[in-house]
Amino acid sequence: MNLTTVLCPLDFSAASAPLMRYATALAVAAGAELRLIHVLEPQPKVLTPSASHDLEVARQLATYRASAEEAGARVSTVLLQGEAATEIVAEAKRHPADLVVIGAHGQTGLTRFLMGSTAEAVVRAAPCATLLVKPCAADTQYRQSA
């Protein structure tokens, strides 16, 4: 398999750091571009993000980018707005990705039914291979390769 672009959506949860390290290792090993994305989802008017929130999101994305570049990856970043799964799949088509590396939060049953699962929707609709990484698996893999 020849990877040229690895797309890694980040939600800035605790699972993002180990997921990003896993995606970085894959991109570096394959000599592929690592494309880090974050999707700002619509908020109710009461919770409209402030300018300081937008700056914090940009800062977090830049921090992840710097970390991946230090590891030897060629990195690009994208900040999108909309429904997360829809935007991730659209980005994988716009900037053709060979692989989407996405984190799984482990929601099952009623929680997933009520809240939906971004990762599940991406796996079903992505135009390319998708690697679903559990936070504990990503962290274990990173410790073993470090």
Average per-residue pLDDT, rounded, comes to: 84
Secondary-structure element string: EHEHEHEHHEH
Cα radius of gyration in angstroms: 15 Å
Portion in beta strands? 15-25%
Helix content: 40-55%
Secondary structure tally: strands: 5
Low-confidence stretches: 110-115, 140-146
Explained architecture:
- By secondary structure, the protein is an alpha/beta fold.
- The chain contains 6 helices and 5 strands, in the order βαβαβαβααβα.
- It has helices at 16-30, 51-70, 84-94, 109-115, 118-125, 135-145, and strands at 5-9, 33-40, 74-81, 99-103, 129-133.
- The chain has a 5-stranded parallel β-sheet, sandwiched between helices.
- Strand 1, helix 1 and strand 2 (33-40) form a beta-alpha-beta unit.
- Helix 1 (16-30) crosses helix 6.
- The two termini are 24 Å apart.
- The relative contact order is 0.22.
- The model is unreliable at 110-115 and 140-146 (pLDDT under 50).
